[in-house]
UniProtKB/TrEMBL annotation:
Sections of the chain in a coiled coil: 12-164
PANTHER family, per the entry: FK506-BINDING PROTEIN 15
Protein name according to UniProt: Uncharacterized protein
Swiss-Prot/TrEMBL keywords: Coiled coil
């Protein structure tokens, strides 16, 4: 009986460790994704200046890196699922042994019922945790599919842009970039009054706010420009 209890406790500890590892891996993946997003946001202004082709190439590379990370996580998730199945089988075997030991023990019927209820409660908890992990896995698969569709869309846009390099498109794009730079310049001019003194923190916060706002506007206008070019080519 003592050997079974030790084995049962060890199995529970291993199961808890696996769950904790999965939680940490999920948190790390989310943190890496957030860091990549922040890095992309900080580099947005430089990417706009460097030109449309460099910006699209960089976005495709970063999307590919993110897809690789998602694929790696999915592989780890499958491995964890296999290990969980093995642990569940071992737990089932241990439970069968426990039933046999209980049949041969001198414990009262009430004590046996209490132990069975405890094991059933633990099984329900394990099933609930497994269901939660499956739901999380479905969520990651959905995100991965969305990223894959976005990457395919951007690759299609790059292919179309590379095959339609004509003077009218470059002239329109040049005017669009000029408009972007003028908007950013006037936003900075409005934010920083020459007669007002600012702290370093205030300057940094103002710059971040302007870059964030203009980055979203620029991406929206670029997307609209791409759609117009695609319609013109059709």
């Amino acid at each position: 009986m003592l050997a079974y209890q030790e084995e049962n406790f060890r199995l529970r500890a291993e199961l808890a460790a696996k769950d904790d590892k999965l939680t940490k891996e999920k948190a790390k993946l989310q943190e890496d994704m957030q860091k990549q997003y922040e890095a992309m946001k900080r580099q947005a202004e430089d990417e706009v200046r460097q030109g449309l082709m460099d910006s699209i190439d960089k976005m495709a590379t970063e999307n590919a890196t993110l897809m690789a990370q998602v694929a790696e996580y999915n592989a780890q998730k499958k491995q964890w699922a296999l290990e969980r199945d093995m642990m569940n089988k071992r737990l089932s075997q241990a439970q069968s042994q426990q039933v046999q030991l209980q049949d041969n023990s001198v414990k009262s019927q009430s004590a046996q019922n209490s132990r069975v209820q405890e094991l059933l409660a633990r099984l329900e908890q394990v099933e609930a945790e497994s269901k939660g992990m499956r739901q999380q896995a479905d969520g990651f698969r959905s995100k991965a599919q969305h990223l894959e569709e976005l990457l395919v869309s951007k690759e299609h846009e790059m292919a179309q842009l590379q095959t339609t390099k004509n003077e009218s498109e470059y002239a329109a794009l040049s005017g669009l970039f000029k408009e972007f730079m003028n908007d950013i310049y006037f936003h900075f001019q409005d934010a920083f009054d020459e007669d007002t003194e600012f702290t370093g923190k205030e300057i940094v916060m103002a710059i971040r706010k302007i870059l964030k706002q203009n980055t979203m506007d620029i991406l929206a206008k670029l997307e609209e420009f791409y759609q117009q070019q695609v319609q013109h080519r059709q």
